Amino acid sequence: MAEEKLITPGPAGYIPTPGAFMGVELPPPGKALLYGKIVDEEVAMREAAKAMLTRRNPTIFPGPLVLWGWNAAAMEKAKAVLELAMEIPNCRIIPMPDYRPKYPKIDPEAEINPNHPNLTILHNKIEACIFVGVHCHYANLSLRMIRAGTNCFTIALCAEMGHEDAMVSLRDVHAEEIRRFKDVLVQVRNELGIEWEPKLPPENPSLPKEDWTKISPLDFGEYAALLMPRKGEIVEETE
Amino acid sequence: MPDQRVVEPEYLLLEAPREKKFITGSQAFAEAVKRANVDIAIAYPITPQSETMHLVGDLYAQGYVKDYYRAEEEYGAMSAIAGAVRGGARAFTATSGPGLLRGLEAIVSWPGHRIPVVLGVMTRVVNAPLSIQPDNIEISYLLNAGLVVLHAENQQDVFDFTLAGFVISEKVDVYLPVVVATEGFFVTHAKGYVQMPSEDMKLPPRDPYKAPVPPTDCEIPPARIQRDAPVQKSNFMSYLIHAVWQQEVWSANRRAMKWIYKYLGGPVEVVNPDAEVFIVASGCAAAQGREAQRYAEQEGLPVGLVKVKSLRPFPEKEVREALKNAKAVIVPEHNIVGWLAKEVKSVIPNSGIVIDGPRVYGGMTLPVELIMEEIYKALGIKKEKKTVV
User: Fold this and answer.
1) Mean pLDDT of A45-53
2) Domain B268-379 belongs in CATH node 3.80.10.10
3) Helices A41-54 and A175-191 sit at what angle, rounded to 10 degrees?
4) What ipTM score was computed for the predicted complex, to two decimals?
5) CATH class given for the domain over B5-202
6) In chain A, whose CA is at the least distance from the CA of B317?
7) B361 touches B137 (CB < 8 A)
8) Nearest to B222 by CA among B254, B246, B253
């Protein structure tokens, strides 16, 4: 009899039980979580690759830790994420640029937000996704809500200790480990007989074209507020 | 002040040679802070924690602590601590009794704000009429907030729990406040032997970027939870975000357990595991329970002790395992409500074997004889009471 899978794609129901409450423990260094059980990294990577290659609308959700060029390591990690995306057939990238609530105006094609991540998943009919570069607290909120309300297979590429509520959780993942995952994915893709020429995902249609040579805070649109002082700010929408 | 070199937490907590000192519980708090590379300490000193924060103030004067001030009152102290920690500092504060309750609104918001900090709580009674004596009823107010709560039996525990508390609280998978509670006066003002590593070593500084939340970002909740409220709308998504946020706090609380094993040798200490009757106790009551177990052993009675070091996360599995063959469980406590007895009853299948007490409160001491009486009763031993007039 197959071993019981504790953490599986949802919908888990009205209120999800956290993996930690179900006895799922984060893996030690060198190991990974697969359906809530501690396994070898390679095993988890292969299952994650299979999900991204065979389920509908595979999508990568990069968070602030790879989206913004904090340092050389972040930039290298961002490059590795793009290299991974190129190898996944029809992969999309939808960013989680920050964590502030944007209720109720989120554009689910443009971004994903940890306060209601299921809106983006459901709108785009995403059945497999990767979280990378999202701070652990917000990744955990998102993973749990996604498991509660959607049938999405979640994969967490965590730079720290991992996530109980993802179907696949790898830990200590930086640029090098992302490239290693990419290699495993290509191998699984070949084994499945899926033909694919590497190419970048499509541009996010909801985001304005950016001219990085003449950038100013105002070019960031609603995110300009993140860069500019709050003095004199007028809050129009409150309840 | 000697030059302090930074050493790995594992070395400082588990491997470094130790020297024996005879110090008070308050001094033990301060000695831990001295080795913890603390950036800031803020407090509004109230008896019996006053001495601790005075000693930490001395550490500031000596250069061990980088900043220190007295807040307006406890609400201000606990709020300022939250701000300092969100800003990336390693912080320590302490309080007790009514001060704790005054700061409680801020303190219980720390876990949701993911504030890694160490809070010393030197218990004293909180009820009217006012008293400044040790009675640990205030700990019960801390148990349902998501805080990691450790309960120190003696001065050695105070030192070890406090120093390890900084390390545990800053683990990325935990990132919660750690409360180190102990009985005011009985521990804080009394001296005991404490084994400590040399004061020329300290923990590495806090790395605020190794965190499950971004530091000092005032644009995101919880910093802006009142403005861009994800939780103040009346719809299902708002309820759900708050629900999973609470779940995250309590998941983090459970994750602290493996670090309690690593740095404190586990959440319980079991003496005489094959006994028939067990004393389950925490804090100062564990010291009295230890004496009662020793008396019982001298009399050849099958009595064991389960000392609970960690109240949150509560060692459900460990207590259940330790008590699986127990015929009776005695839970001595320094409070009237018996919060530990309730915890123990809730995690074992046969809660009827738990004897509520003995309990003392209002600052009364807990004589070993009171525990012995319960042991005799549990074992069906009749002792004649001697009345000495």
Assistant:
1) 98
2) no
3) 60
4) 0.92
5) alpha beta
6) A23
7) yes
8) B246
Within 10 Å of residue B195's Cβ, how many Cβ atoms? 12
Nearest-CA distance B260 → chain A (Å): 15
**Per-position DSSP letters for B84-95, written without gaps between them:** HHHTT--EEEEE
Question: Cβ atoms within 10 A of the Cβ of B20, count?
Answer: 10
Say which residue, A9 or B386, is predicted with more confidence.
A9
| Pick from A197, A177, A200: nearest CA to A45 | A177
Does A91 reside within a domain?
A: yes
Give Cα separations from B161 to B13, B29, B91, B192, B207 (angstroms): 10, 9, 15, 15, 21
Q: How far is B269 from chain A (nearest CA, A)?
A: 23
On the question of a common fold for B5-202 and B268-379, the answer reads: yes
In terms of residue numbers, what domain contains A58? Answer: 31-199
Q: Which helix (H) or strand (E) holds A155?
A: strand A153-157
Interval B45-56 mean pLDDT: 88
Q: How far apart are CA A82 and CA B96, in angstroms?
A: 53
Chain B residue closest in CA terms to A171: B173
Does B340 score more than 80 pLDDT? Answer: yes
Q: What does the domain layout of chain B look like in residue ranges? A: 5-202, 268-379
Alpha carbon of A90: minimum distance to chain B alpha carbons (Å): 30
- The angle subtended at Cα A228 by Cα A224 and Cα A232, nearest 5°, is 110
Q: What is the pLDDT of residues A211-236, one digit of tens each?
A: 666 666 666 676 666 655 555 655 55
Q: What's the CA gap between B289 and B331, in Å, rounded?
A: 9
- Any domain includes A216: no
In single-letter form, the type of residue at position B383 comes to K
For residue B176, list chain A residues with Cβ-Cβ distance below 8 A.
none
DSSP run (H or E) holding A72: helix A72-87
Residue B197 — pLDDT band, cuts 50, 70, 90? very high
Q: What is the pLDDT of residue B215?
A: 75
**DSSP states along B179-225:** EEEEETTTTTSSEEEEEEE-TTEEPPPP-TTSSSS-TT-TTSTTTTT
Mutation for testing the B interface, residue in A65, A70, A100, A113 having most B CBs under 10 Å: A100
Residue A198 above 50 pLDDT?
A: yes
Q: What is the pLDDT of residues A114-128, one digit of tens each?
A: 988 999 999 999 999
- Given a cut of 70, whether residue A133 has pLDDT beyond it is yes
Domain of residue A156, CATH code? 3.40.50
Question: Percentage of residues in chain B with pLDDT exceeding 70?
Answer: 95
Cβ separation of A100 and B221 shorter than 8 Å? yes
- Provide the number of structural domains found in chain A: 1
